[in-house]
Amino acid sequence: MRNDAQGVQPDAPPATAAPPGSHKDRKGVAADVGASLVVFLVAVPLSLGIAVASGAPLIAGIIAAVVGGIVAGLVGGSMVQVSGPAAGLTIIVADLIATYGWRVTCLITLLAGLVQLVLGAVRIARAALAVSPAVVHGMLAGVGVTIALAQLHVVLGGAPQSSAVANIADLPHQIAHNHSAAVAVGVITIAIMFTWNKLPSFGRLRPAVVPAALVAVGTATAIATVGGWRVETVSLPDSLADAWNGPVLPAAGQWHGIAVGVATVALVASVESLLAGIAVDRLHNGRRIMLNRELFGQGAANTVSGALGGLPVAGVIVRSTANVRAGAHTPRSTILHGVWILLFVAFFAHVVELIPMAALAALLVFIGVQMVSIAHLRNLRRHHEASVYLVTLFGVVLLGLMEGVFIGFALAMIVSLRRLTKLTVTTEERDNRVHVTVHGSLTFLGVPRLAHVLRTVPEGAQVDLDLHVDFMDHAAFEAIHAWRVDHERTGGAVDIDEVHERWYARSSTSSAPASKTAPGGLARWWAPWGMRRVPEETAREVNPLGLLTAGAREYHSSTADRMRSLMGRLSHGQHPTALFITCADSRVVPNLITSSGPGDLFTVRNVGNLVPRRGTPGDVSVGAAVEYAVNVLRVPSIVVCGHSHCGAMKALLEKAHQEPGDAQTSHMCRWLANGHESLVRAGEVSGALAGLPAAEALRRLAQANVEEQLGNLMGYPVVRERVESGDLELSGMYYDLETARVHLLDTATGEFRPVQGVGDPVPHPRPGADGDQLLEESSPGASSRSSC
């Protein structure tokens, strides 16, 4: 089965095509035709405006729009992406035209299309996605600012300068001295563009259904025409023969520059098209984009557009988004929109020639401003890549497109290198030993930091050096080895424990791996078996023993070797941090929700995380575990953890413990009777839970049950004595399955509050009034016990 652009299967499989002539097929055709008309209305003014901004003949924008719709739609790999002249290529094309002239630029477009055809044929499309999105979005934002600054001068009745800096410097003069009719046309266009989509709906009349670009340019054109304003308007060729202005060969000494231009157009057009296609895929449920085929389609469109005298073509997000929102399902919409543009220009060219140039310039000002996406900046800021975006943006505006992209790409590489070589070194003294822990990739870049920390270790100290590194180069090995030799020479001792990979040991005895090593096994080690792909040889092991064996095999291949040193130390004894009492429910994994490891938790699991009161006849296993943990292991903490959607709590609410149990459920009924006091505490007996939604009642009971079991624990003398002496703390915890969030009991308020972040204090009951109350509530005979 074919994968989508992200390398995984789409959420929903594409629907099978409806039989020709069926009702579903006719409905799909109607939707595509309607969407094509909407995109056609958007594309005409945009194509003309981009041609204006590029300094190309206006008909070149129309040719590119027609070819992009028909050719890319027929050959490309996206269901709904619309191709045509792209604003992101405007600066490149304008520079090429200024340097080589228009007809040589057509040749560059044709050759760039051939390059894209080759790249698509050799299936290299995914490589284009290696460019950082921060650089791409920063480049587009820089292009947008440059376009807006240049076209703002046209709106004001002047002419754009040679650079963005010059446009900024000349802007005050333009504002102060240009007040022609062109300014009014531009202001009207921009005002409508900004306000149209914000207008409220009036019943079934929704203004946003009509494209804002069409309304803005159409209104400005109508006002200028009716008012007889003297403004420059669009001029198109008289015939198709006059329209052709195709490619010519350059001068002999220009081929080097031509090659650079071809590579630039091919790269930028490809990256922009593929990223736009992936972005549009998020808006529809049809077949995902086939990247190599789409790249091939873009190459075909650029080859034809260059041959016919059109602008370079790329997939464009604005027209593609309009296409999806208008209801498009198949490439028919894209193809038809190109047909409508061709017919409109062929038969209604006189209407197009009424459009004022100032209206197109104002449209470009609005588009340029919108290319600076605050949403992209916020998203990149969350991923700590906003600096790359901003540096690329200002580089493009102040220095030029290629210079800005190069600087942004270099910064992106530096940021990535810094992340890949990030190193954390921590030290801690305990049990008369110095523990040094190193996390990350240990390269020569991290040697100064590591050496600084190691120099702070006192002479003669006993040192445990834990290396959690996925890479160690020779410089890092030499630094550690030299320090170890010197430290041991002065009477100290160093025990090196390599958790991830035996880099140090292999560098000492043979040769280390040549590159980073990832842990073996599956990345989703925490997921259930059913959510993980198992190797083909274990796929047949569907029985429980087979799954357990496959899991053990995965553990041996990915984890056992790294745990051998740790488990060797733990084999001599255990010193857990807490007695953890929780439910036997398979969905609750204590080590997962507490990020604990071997030796951290002494765990007791039973149905309903119950702690029977001391002296209760029947099962004494929980009492034995409590006494062993407190008396022998001397744990400093006991945690009782309940959870949502607990089957035991649901059975209590349904009074299962009061029903006469048969031979198959007698043990369960007797055990659930230990939870009757939890019902009392939750208010079920007094009717406090009556009328509540089932989920809310279950939550209250599960949380009340945790508090009740904490009270029962205080009924054990060994627990009470250590709590009162301050050597033992009791804590309540609640795990919400739906949100996968842990909540802690706040004894001051009696409420369970979610853990918000690292460093939040864990609330623990203290000896005193709370402890006395818990003991009083847990004393035998405090309430009656129902039997099953």
Main beta sheet: 6 strands, mixed
Span between termini: 55 Å
The portion of residues forming beta strands comes to 5-15%
Rounded to the nearest angstrom, the radius of gyration is: 36 Å
Neighbour order of strands in the largest sheet: 8-7-9-10-11-12
Question: Which structural class do the helices and strands define?
Answer: alpha/beta
| Overall outline | elongated
Mean pLDDT: 82
Give the helix tally. Answer: 33
Transmembrane segments: 29-51, 58-80, 100-122, 134-156, 176-196, 208-229, 255-280, 335-352, 358-377, 389-415
Catalytic activity: hydrogencarbonate + H(+) = CO2 + H2O
Keywords: Lyase, Membrane, Transmembrane, Transmembrane helix, Zinc
Enzyme class: lyase
Descriptive overview:
With about 800 residues, the chain is of the alpha/beta class. About 55% of the residues lie in helices and about 10% in strands. The protein contains 33 helices and twelve strands. The strands form three sheets. The protein has a six-stranded mixed sheet. Strands 3-4-5-6 form a four-stranded mixed sheet, covered by helices on one side. Helix 1 (about 25-55) crosses helix 14 (about 330-345), helix 17 (about 375-380) crosses helix 18 (about 385-400) and helix 31 packs across helix 33 (about 770-780). The longest helix is centred in the first third of the chain and has 32 residues, at about 25-55. The radius of gyration is 36 Å and the shape is elongated. The relative contact order is 0.09.
